[in-house]
Amino acid sequence: MSFDPTTLPDVSDLTVGILGGTGPQGRGLAYRLARAGQKIRIGSRSADRGAQAAAEIAKMPGVVSGLVNGNHVSGGDNVYACDADVVIVAVPWEGHGDLLASLVGELTGKIVVDCVNPLGFDSHGPYVLPVPGGSAAQQAEALLPQSRVCAAFHHVSAVLLADPEVTAMDLDVLVLGDDRDAVAVVQALAGRIEGMRGIHAGRLRNAGQVEGLTANLIAINKRYKAHAGVRITDV
């Protein structure tokens, strides 16, 4: 069966919250999704930093006065970001577990998209860290039993996301999860960003190797001075 974006749900009216929305990955995703017309809620440990990041994103090209098709970008603390239909987790691995454990109530019933890559770095470059439970996404699922956890957006360059002169992202987003309806929503969100496709890539138990592939992409980027992504062929 070929990939057919017309089978995916309409997500244009959904609000997207981003935990860690002031970091490079979260901020870049916020910009691209706002530019695509999603309503965005930026979250940070500091409400002031979240609000400041939202104000800055609202002034970026393609996000006119913070409004796109009637939608807007706003910010506050991480609890503020949870008041959304879909919540993207884009925090450093070191704080991943503690943050999610503190937001169990706020994230109940929500689609939670984990894009955290558990990596270490030494003199030889990046390497995959062992994670009890298998992956960051599986850790999120264990901590948030009443949420609909998916894994996605691991291989998207924060540099390209944040560059207004990059008009389209030439890559596929691998989306994993056990809730097919939630996966379809995340696929559709990825497809809202120009040049992206959201590709269903299996169950959440297979998120570990997807997260770990980021170490290889970092090595590729360093070797070729690039911002490499992933494209799936014959789909």
Write structural notes for this entry.
This protein is of the alpha/beta class. It has one domain: 3-Layer(aba) Sandwich (Rossmann fold), CATH 3.40.50.720. It contains 8 helices and 11 strands. Strands 3-4-2-1-5-6-9-10-11 form a 9-stranded mixed beta sheet. Helix 4 packs parallel to helix 5. The longest helix is centred in the last third of the chain and has 18 residues. It starts with 14 loop residues before the first strand and ends in an 11-residue tail after the last helix. The model has no long low-confidence stretch (mean pLDDT 95).
Secondary-structure blueprint:
Layout: E1 15-19, H1 24-35, E2 39-44, H2 47-58, E3 67-68, E4 71-77, H3 78-81, E5 86-89, H4 93-102, E6 111-114, E7 119-122, E8 125-128, H5 136-143, E9 148-151, H6 158-162, E10 171-177, H7 180-191, E11 196-200, H8 207-224
Parallel strand pairs: 1-2, 1-5, 2-4, 5-6, 6-9, 10-11
Antiparallel strand pairs: 3-4, 7-8, 9-10
Brief sketch in words of this structure:
The protein has helices at 24-35, 47-58, 78-81, 93-102, 136-143, 158-162, 180-191, 207-224, and strands at residues 15-19, 39-44, 67-68, 71-77, 86-89, 111-114, 119-122, 125-128, 148-151, 171-177, 196-200. It starts with 14 loop residues before the first strand and ends in an 11-residue tail after the last helix.
